[in-house]
Design brief:
Blueprint (H helix, E strand, L loop, with lengths): L5 E5 L2 E2 L6 H15 L10 E4 L1 H9 L8 H16 L2 E2 L5 E2 L1 E7 L9 E5 L5 H9 L2 H19 L4 H15 L9 H19 L7 H15 L3 H9 L10 E7 L10 E6 L11 E6 L3 H6 L5 E2 H7 L1 H18 L3 E8 L2 E9 L4 H13 L5 H7 L6 H4 L2 E2 L1 H6 L2 E4 L1 E4 L2 E7 L2 H9 L4 E5 L7 H6 L2 E4 L7 H9 L3 E3 L4 E5 L2 E4 L2 E4 L3 E5 L4 E4 L4 E2 L6 H14 L2 E3 L5 E3 L2 E5 L3 H9 L5 E5 L9 H9 L4 H25 L4 E5 L14 H11 L3 H11 L11 H6 L1 H20 L5 E6 L5 H22 L6 E6 L2 H5 L1 H7 L2 E4 L1 H9 L10 H6 L16 H15 L4 E4 L7 H10 L3 E4 L4 H15 L2
Parallel strand pairs: 4-5, 17-18, 18-19, 19-20, 29-30, 29-36, 30-31, 31-32, 32-33, 33-34, 34-35, 35-36
Antiparallel strand pairs: 1-2, 1-3, 3-8, 6-7, 6-8, 9-10, 9-12, 10-11, 12-13, 14-26, 15-25, 16-20, 17-24, 21-22, 22-23, 24-25, 27-28
The structure holds phosphoenolpyruvate (PEP) and magnesium ion.
Phosphoenolpyruvate (PEP) binds next to strand 30 and helix 31.
Amino acid sequence: MAAKYVYFFGNGDADGDESMRAELGGKGANLAQMAKAPLSLPVPPGFTITTDVCQEFYKLNRNYPEGLSAQVDEYLAKLEAAMGKKLGDENDPLLVSVRSGAAISMPGMMDTILNLGLNDKAVVGLAKKTNNERFAWDAYRRFIQMYGDVAMGVDHDKFEAIIDEVKAKAGVKEDTELTTENLKEIVEKYKAMYKAEKGEDFPQDAKKQMWGAIGAVFGSWMNPRAIKYRKLNNIKEGALKGTAVSVMAMVFGNKGETSGTGVCFSRDPSTGENVFMGEYLMNAQGEDVVAGIRTPQKLSQLEQTNKAIYDQLCEIRDRLEKHYHDMQDMEFTVEEGKLFMLQCRNGKRTGAAAVKMAVDMVAEGLITKEQALLRVEPEQLNQLLLPQLDKDAVKKAIEIASGLNASPGAGCGQIVFTADEAEAWAKDGKKVLLVRKETSPDDIAGMAVAQGILTSTGGRTSHAAVVARGMGTPCVCGCADVAFKDENTIVVKGKEYKKGDFLTIDGATGRVFEGQVAVKPAAISGDLETFLGWADEVRNASVRTTASGKTVKGFNVLANGDTPQNAKDAFRFGAMGIGLCRTEHMFFDEPKLTAFQKMIVSDTTEQRKENLAKILPYQQKDFYEIIKTMEGRPVTIRLLDPPLNEFIQAESDGAAAALATKLGMDKAALVAKVAALDEHNPMLGHRGCRLAITYPEIYEMQVEAIARATAQLDKEGVKHDVRIMIPNVVTYKEVEQIRAQAEAVIAAVNKDCGTSLAFQIGSMVEFPRTALSADKVASVADFFSFGSNDLTQTTFGFSRDDYGKFINSYLDQRVLEDDPFATLDADGPGALMEIAEAKGRGVKADLHLGICGEHGGDPASIALCYKIGLNYVSCSPFRVPLARLAGAQAVIKASK
Ligand code: PEP
Ligand code: MG
């Protein structure tokens, strides 16, 4: 026997229900559920062809599986019996709509055809039967247009041109003003145009029409719009079986002034407020509401004009919310005073609305806290924290290019091409957008005052991206279409933009727009803290067993922060500490930058020590403030890890001269220094703890600054929990040696200050060798922090700074499913982390493990970190709320 491919709904009954969402699609499953008890809502009868058929359709090269045709016949007969009408009947035709619907709603992405079943004869029958000739001809012209466009690929504009022509001739503006005669003329012209385009008559056989529409809907599963939507929403190809097709008896909202159609939401989808809202149009079909041809009326108006229907809708709203325990987006039609429900689904909502609804629904007893936590997409929280582009403004804006969405938020300003210009212009009160090929530490002051940052090269972990995220500044990087013509001009796809012109970027999507697109400021809802408090409870209470058999309790969220301001942001957003303080980032601004540069260009150890002594007080002050801000929460300070050449750059002769003057040295000597520091591959060069193996005095100064800052706080009675972290470790011997030097310095400070401070000293795990020898490293380290940026770089062999050139080809061709620098790869770095967990905890059972690469702020990566058994994730301050939620979701999902 063939599989069951078709399910019935309507007339108070259905042979499917909401548990069959995967097979019936969201729309089909909800129609079935609404039709049957206990909801028993007025749903026009129909049947749904399952998503299995869609899957087969593509497997069979766009053919249907055996047995489908007979089942459709059987269910069509059932539908005809329910309606007391027959499809294609010349006197009283049954008309149907043919609708798409996948298990995950993809609003507007796939096709729908209405008024199907009309032909030259049936339209006359319909006119007689309904005693409404205008209605019948309007339905027929709508059907020819929709079917011709959607199922047969006739250009929509060709139909519109005909309507416009007839309207102009008749001297009317609105479709509703067209007379029956006008509509008849349109039908004739449509059919003639159709024949000219397709070389055959418009199909008159209603069954043939139905199969054409079913094929079109299944075909629309793979239209470019739907594919793009799935990509944007991270729905993997193959995760869904496809779309279902629902064939439903038509009810008509365009049968005169007692008919109408509308869309409503059980709560406000943009604010989350518990108010019933929506829009409707009398004497119209659904497409009129959506297409914006006529301006719909507010649902509240219906209460005045048709209280009975409004009350019935209110009652349905309550019943559906109680049933689905979620905000519903509903479509309805009123046919000659009788209400029908055509669709309901969980409504899309903004981040602010999602949080408010989740919190309200817990208070109302509709859902549990755990359900509430699963209701909000972690990424949606960003919307609550950063300025956003105004949606309506974006629709009208001119998009000129796109790059990597490196740091979310909207940034709009006058373009400038150097950090100095950014600073100078900002001082004059201008809003600037900093456009650079790439950024360097020298640019930091300019970056800090910019509304946004746009770079033509660099990936998500490039300097610009990391710093921008840390500062909460919107950033689009790796935007290859931006070319620098001269110091006053960039060229984007052939069009020139001068310094001072306005551009707008959307860091959440990577899109770049011409001119000023309106930006909306951030608004933090009071419910957010309640909501995130629940997330913290869930993570704190979590217990799991790792693959290596160790029990791990709790899952914490820390922040990456390099400045006292970062620490304040981190604290404000609820971070339980600082998981990574990149000390090299503390030298971005003056006078620290000059002191640091002088240290780098030192010729002798003595000179270097002299310059280091000048830096020490700056470091001590910054450490003091960060540690103080975090009020006893862990602060993990990483010893220096810069590619030194990043700090000493002399791109031109003029720049070399300026830098030499600033550092009080001879230009030729500086140029020689720059050449000496130059590396073919700085990312794999003289950086991290390799610097301390060559120049131990650098880390010794830093440890002294840390110890002195802590001693000062200790004496002031301020709580502190400071941890020292060594970067770029490849062998336990580096840790052993640096640790011994650090402990000697700490002992000296203790003696000097009369304190008895002790610090945990841990190792970063950023290279395969470190992970593979984690047992040895653990024997000399107090904790591990996975530097997943470098671990990804070295596991994949993809340069962090250059992969932007090819990653999109990999993603477009699905050679890789995800950008590995954005989402931690389970087979590569993830597998190495598992090895490190097992080996490390094999030596020290309670070894503390965390992650501080950019992945610490990515929901899918956070879930993998939880599974591996990390104690915490650390991410940029602005992603802390997201990580608090994503961590809780990982806990809840793992327990299911
Ligand atoms: C890392 O490599 O993941 C890391 C945190 O260090 P950085 O990004 O500073 O190299
Ligand atoms: Mg690193």
